[in-house]
Amino acid sequence: LVKAGLRVVEVPLNSPDALRSIRLLAESLPEDVVVGAGTVLSVEQVAQVAEAGGTLVVSPNMDRDVIARTKELGLLSLPGVCTPTEAFAALQAGADGLKAFPGEQIPPKIIKAWRAVLPTDTCLLLVGGASPENMPAYTQAGVSGFGVGSGLYRPGDGAEEVAPRALAFVAALRDSEQDAGPGGSKRAKTS
Description:
It is a single chain. 41% of the residues lie in helices and 16% in strands. With 191 residues, the protein is of the alpha/beta class. A four-stranded parallel β-sheet has the order 1-2-3-4, with helices on one face. Strands 5-6-7-8 form a four-stranded parallel β-sheet, covered by helices on one side. Strand 2, helix 2 (43-51) and strand 3 (56-58) form a beta-alpha-beta unit. Helix 5 packs parallel to helix 6 (135-141) and helix 6 packs across helix 7 (159-180). The longest helix is centred in the C-terminal third of the chain and has 22 residues, at 159-180. It starts with 7 loop residues before the first strand and ends in an 11-residue tail after the last helix. The relative contact order is 0.12.
């Protein structure tokens, strides 16, 4: 994943041995790679992520207590939001960015409308349903980046299956950034 150009690795807490995986990744990946947990639902889980060496907390929902505990521990907070109301509440609670989730329910025209009202420096990641084929439309609409899960990795996959998918996602993002041109989004980053 890192060789392909990905710089954020999230291990869902509902996966087997998630905290052990986070610890191993945090200890072995380069310092410029952000390692953290997804599907974080409680303040207790936030503490467990911090103890494992994770620096990122991603949730499928907007929970003020989870955001507050994440910030108290000096970690990055990316709560899931599906409406502008949730987005503004998350930012007001201290979130570092937003996980637009589930992405399948939020078409590019809705992301563009969100961008018209969100603070311009808001990190907005589309998670759920991102593919190399739809990334250009979302990048032009204003997403900062993408979270990919099953499109990249499925249980049992080895490096030989994951590597070409990771390269395809990174190439699609880089192409999207170039295609955005004047007036399009330049918020998406690959490194």
